[in-house]
Amino acid sequence: MKDRKPDTDLVHGGRRREWRGPAVNVPVHRASTILFDSVAELRAAAPEFGKAYYGLHGTPTQWALAEALTELEPGAAGTMLYSNGLAALTAAIMAVLAAGDEILVTDSVYGPTRRFCDGLLKRYGVATRYYDPMIGGGIADLIGERTRAILLESPGSLTMEVQDVPAICAAARARGVATLLDNTWATPLFFPAMAAGVDLSILAGTKYVGGHADVMLGSVTANADWYPRLERASWDLGHSVSPDDAWLGLRGLRTMAVRLRQHEANALKVAHWLKARPEVGAMLHPSFPDCPGHDLWVRDFRGATGLFTFALRGGGDAERVRFIDALELFGIGYSWGGYESLVLPVDPKPIRTATACQGEGPLVRLHIGLEDPDDLIEDLARAFDLGGATP
Ligand SMILES: *Cc1c(COP(=O)(O)O)cnc(C)c1O
After folding, report:
1. Among the atoms of ligand 1, which is closest to the Cα of residue 205?
2. Least CB-packed of 62, 174, 228, 249 within 10 Å?
3. Distance 336 CA to ligand 1 centre (A)
């Protein structure tokens, strides 16, 4: 069936009869060695998607997850899997660049990606220049002789700027520059990246694909221009993901559409309640006008997920810490995208090098889980009333 809707792809993607047998699901298929029937067969074989060759190149469990992710991005040629999101990002960057090249990276980028660019990547002779996430088509002025790639992240980590992905990709394509998007927040369900002109779309599957805070996963989905090079680089770097983790990814993926819509509804309810509180300043949630790029989110996205940042009005870190410590239903910890709510104090200002960021006052990042949002609101109200933040 052509033109299946994404919800249908999530349910049916990767479930080939030859991989699952008569059962509904593809099982956990463990293998390092693959046996060949003869020397002739061994010599004729080569690593290839969907062909048993060696554990590094996957078994039906990993292929099923890769195929399901590829089907979510119309225009994609294939998907490579990684043991976490950061490994996916660094592999994609290494696949497209060589010594002497330059990469343009959004100033709102995920912190560990910045550390990779400023450290290891620099040591291997690739220069990084950070750009204003709101630059849009103006990126054309930054593309130089040595620029070979542009890394986007939309919305940005911590500060949530929504980028003009189509305009940046169009400018890049006109100059033969590859575009890489960290699409972890929206997933292909809420932002189909290939359709917007992105060459390599990256997910930390640890977040919404897994969805249950119990697995580390990453993926890069690439178009035909880049998939062969991505595949080669990933194998050369020795990347693989365990079949158990791939299976958890598949398990999570099947329900991702319903989970995302519930995260969205719950987060909107909590965010609107917060915005009306005297203790709250800027609401850095893409569906709020306070958020840089809000209009682009309205134009380009099919939804919002559960992660956003807000500013406390007045007070400093001590008040912020008291507020956070008073919360009972929100866990304090890194990562997000699971079924449970999380809270984190975030301080993006000192990290930025190209631009200042929005939001006066101490910032708090929330991930809104699948609890009843009224209970979350009651928890937040109680933490405010305990004097955690001063209006
Ligand atoms: C968490 C995250 C990553 C890294 O994923 P891990 O699986 O934790 O390595 C990358 N990008 C974004 C935007 C993230 O939030």
Report:
1. 7
2. 174
3. 9
Helices then strands, counting H and E runs in the chain, come out as 15, 12
Cα–Cα distance, 89 to 205 (Å, whole number) = 12
Q: 312 pairs with which residues across the strands?
A: 280
Structure confidence by residue, pLDDT tens digits, 351-366: 899 888 766 789 999 9
Tell me the C-alpha distance between 249 and 246, whole Å.
5
DSSP string, 189-229: HH--TGGGT-SEEEE-TTTTTT-SS----EEEEE-TTTHHH
pLDDT at residue 386 in the model? 86
163-180 pLDDT per residue, tens? 999 999 999 999 999 999
* Angle (nearest 5°) at CA 359 between 326 and 171: 130
Give me the residues paired with residue 130 across strands: 105
Residue 339 structure tokens: 């079924």
Q: What is the pLDDT of residue 358?
A: 66
Going from the C-alpha of 354 to that of each of 133, 134, 165, 198, 361, the distances in angstroms are 9, 11, 19, 23, 20
Residue with tokens 């052509």: 2
Separation of CA 314 and ligand 1 centre (Å): 30
Residue labelled with tokens 């006008």: 289
- Please name the residue that has the structure tokens 């410590």: 325
Per-residue pLDDT reduced to its tens digit, 211-238: 999 999 999 999 999 999 999 999 999 9
Give the residue, by CA position, lying nearest to ligand 1 atom 5: 85
pTM: 0.97
Q: Is the CB–ligand 1 distance for residue 358 below 6 Å?
A: no
**Nearest-5° Cα angle at 92, 243 to 133:** 125
| Domains, in order of start, for the chain | 6-254 (3.40.640.10), 256-385 (3.90.1150.10)
Whether the CB of 192 sits within 6 Å of ligand 1: no
Q: Is 305 helix (H, G, I), strand (E, B) or coil?
A: coil
CA nearest to 185, candidates 322, 329, 302: 302
CA-based nearest residue to 239, from 113, 80, 85, 95 = 80
